Amino acid sequence: AQKITQTQPGMFVQEKEAVTLDCTYDTSDPSYGLFWYKQPSSGEMIFLIYQGSYDQQNATEGRYSLNFQKARKSANLVISASQLGDSAMYFCAMREPGTASKLTFGTGTRLQVTL
Amino acid sequence: SAVISQKPSRDICQRGTSLTIQCQVDSQVTMMFWYRQQPGQSLTLIATANQGSEATYESGFVIDKFPISRPNLTFSTLTVSNMSPEDSSIYLCSVEPPGQWGGEQYFGPGTRLTVT
After folding, report:
1. What is the CA radius of gyration of chain B?
2. Chain B within 8 Å of A62 (Cβ-Cβ)?
3. Distance from CA of A70 to the nearest CA of B (A)
4. Which of B1, B103, B107 lies nearest to residue A45, judging by beta carbons?
5. What is the rounded average pLDDT for all residues in chain A?
6. Are B71 and B5 within 8 A, CB to CB?
7. Which residues of A touch B37 (CB under 8 A)?
8. CA-to-CA distance for B39 and A36, rounded, in angstroms?
9. Cα A63 vs. chain centroid, distance in angstroms?
């Protein structure tokens, strides 16, 4: 079974609009961490935001926020005020305890910001 | 965070040859990892590079094909041996700097490998 599921292979958003990228996860462990990374066409992986399973509030980092719904096992990334530079692949990832810091990645969503 | 560099940034290699990729970090880190990203795919962990001992490989990856060295806490190499076109991928190293709240990993810029 997929541990991390990203159901949107591609998304379009107009500049200055907000966009939500979906991520659902599967784990039976109560303690886990969720991450979002951005991968521009250059290939580097850029860490965006982290959410811990015990965190009471949704994580925020500048224009990025994480809509964490624990009961639904979803951790959607919200990008506000989209910019052309936000065009990239976005990957959701999970870390479970006892896995020696191993990250499991989803298949990614390609976001295209248009004028 | 951490500043991570990789060499080479890209290479085109002939099948049957080997390529060694270097990963350098600007600070000492315990946890260092190597990932592979095949064209159009997500990232898959190859192995965890352990300082002073053998790397820990994930299912589907073996030491003979992907030997890893970790001579100190700031440097590691990954060798892709006896290459075939199926090895064409981006190879990324990552580190988990100490003291990170969530244990997030930071990645190097990647090495784009094309095997002909």
Report:
1. 13
2. no
3. 17
4. B107
5. 93
6. no
7. 43
8. 20
9. 13
Task: Sort out which chain B residues have CB atoms less than 8 A from A95's CB and list them.
Answer: 102-103
User: Hey, what amino acid is at B51?
Assistant: Q
Q: What is the mean pLDDT of residues B92-112?
A: 86
Type of residue found at B97: P
Tally Cβ neighbours within 10 Å of residue B97. 19
Give the model confidence (pLDDT) of B40-86 as tens digits. 899 999 999 988 888 999 999 999 999 999 999 999 999 999 999 99
Q: What Cα–Cα distance (Å) separates residue A54 from each residue in A57, A69, A95, B3, B77?
A: 9, 12, 13, 29, 36
Contacts of A42 in chain B (CB under 8 A): 109
Q: How many CB atoms lie within 10 A of CB B1?
A: 11
Closest by CA to A15, choosing from A64, A87, A95, A104, is A87
What is the phi-psi region of residue A63: left when phi exceeds 0, alpha when psi lies from -120 to 50, beta otherwise?
Answer: alpha
- Interchain CB contact of A9 with B (< 8 Å): no
Residues 6+ away with beta carbon under 8 Å from B30: B51, B73, B96, B98
Q: Judge if the upstream peptide bond of residue B8 is cis by omega within 30 degrees of 0.
A: yes
Question: Would you call A102 exposed, middle or buried from its count of C-beta atoms within 10 A (0-12, 13-18, 19+)?
Answer: middle
Size of interface A-B (CB pairs under 8 A): 61
Average pLDDT over residues A8-36: 95
